[in-house]
Write a structure and sequence with these properties.
four-stranded parallel β-sheet; three-stranded mixed β-sheet; single chain; about 45% helix
Length: about 290
């Protein structure tokens, strides 16, 4: 894996990150195994050693591959790792998926971790939110504020590009990992979340990756319609035989009745466009 030297500016940010975590005395990092939380977990371990712990949620919204990645990365870093079951699927406000789902999911996560903080031997929770997250619709940030969750990457001034550069410097294998939000985020607002639907989306995306894709999304819309997002350069391949026939056959086997390819290509967070404006205002976290 290539490595890079840090610029003086990024080295200063790294030092601020380590100092911010050291000041906490002990921390539970909400650890999904994505690039941001991996960098925070690594920094927490460097700053705090065994007073840092990575906590990963396990539920029907977490892809099995992501859970295994989290376990592998925690072992690589050396940080103590705890997997906790979360019960967001028991919350009707989460299941109705009206644009506030992420708020209820993060509330469940942070409430669950809060209850076990004494057992973990730490007092504070931290997330992997960076400065770029402040410019997007992130209702989970409101839940974080309600539970006094710290955002050390924001405190230290990290953008997403900074996070990736530091991960590369630290030789973390996730340095170029695409974003991978929870499976429930693939369901269009207004379409109820169910374990069957999240499992269907997970299987569909596993199939797409078997065809050589790294970045892709299967958006589940009303009427069992799958809107497939692939990189723009791949659209022609997926719209032509034999891939088109193979794709539609597999998706129909999984339970989709209609299969479409989005001509705009892959776009992270595209379903946020369907969240009502009044909901975005209330749950923006700002």
């Amino acid at each position: 894996m290539p490595t890079t030297e840090l610029s003086p500016e990024l080295a200063a940010k790294r030092d601020r990150l380590l100092a911010a975590l050291a000041e906490l005395g002990g921390v539970a990092v909400a650890f999904s195994g994505g690039i941001d939380s991996t960098v925070v977990a690594k920094a927490a371990f460097l700053a705090l050693g065994d007073r840092a712990v990575a906590v990963t949620a396990d539920s029907g919204s977490v892809a099995r591959a992501e859970l295994e990645d989290a376990r592998r990365l925690a072992a690589l870093i050396g940080i103590r790792h705890v997997v906790v079951p979360t019960q967001e699927f028991d919350n009707p406000d989460y299941l109705k998926n009206d644009g506030t789902r992420c708020y209820h999911c993060k509330t469940e996560l942070y409430s669950t971790v809060e209850r076990i903080l004494p057992d973990l031997g730490v007092d504070v929770m931290a997330s992997g939110a960076n400065l770029d997250d402040l410019g997007d619709y992130r209702p989970g940030l409101l839940a974080a504020a309600e539970h006094a969750v710290r955002h050390p990457l924001q405190v230290a001034g990290f953008t997403k590009a900074d996070v990736r550069a530091l991960a590369l410097h630290w030789e973390l294998p996730t340095w170029d990992k695409p974003a991978s939000p929870c499976l429930s985020s693939r369901l269009a607002p207004g379409l109820a979340v169910t374990p069957e639907r999240t499992a269907r989306v997970e299987a569909a995306e596993v199939f797409l990756r078997s065809l050589g894709l790294r970045e892709c999304r299967v958006r589940h819309h009303e009427g069992d319609l799958a809107r497939v997002e692939v990189p723009a350069a791949e659209i022609a391949r997926f719209a032509a035989d034999p891939v088109r026939t193979e794709l539609t056959r597999e998706f129909r086997r999984l339970g989709f009745k209609f299969v479409t390819i989005d001509l705009d290509g892959f776009r992270s967070g595209s379903l946020n466009d369907l969240v009502p404006l009044e909901v975005r205002r209330v749950y923006s976290g700002r």
